[in-house]
Amino acid sequence: MPALVLLGAQWGDEGKGKATDLLGGSVDYVVRYQGGNNAGHTVVVGDQKYALHLLPSGILSPECTPVIGNGVVVDPAVLLSELSGLNERGVDTSKLLLSGNAHLITPYHTTVDKVTERFLGSRKIGTTGRGIGPTYADKINRVGIRVQDLYDESILTQKVEAALDFKNQILAKLYNRRAISPAAIVEEMLTYAEQIKPFVADTTLILNNAIDDGKVVLFEGGQGTLLDVDHGTYPFVTSSNPTAGGACTGTGVGPTKINRVIGILKAYTTRVGAGPFPTELFDKDGEALRTIGGERGVTTGRDRRCGWFDAVIARYATRVNGLTDFFLTKLDVLTGWEQIPVCVAYEIDGKRVEELPYSQSDFHHAKPVYEMLPGWSEDISKAKTFSDLPKNAQAYVKALEEMSGAPISAIGVGPGRTETIEINSFLS
Ligand code: GDP
Ligand code: IMO
Ligand code: MG
Question: Which end of the chain is more exposed for a tag (fewer CB within 10 A), N or C?
Answer without folding.
Answer: C
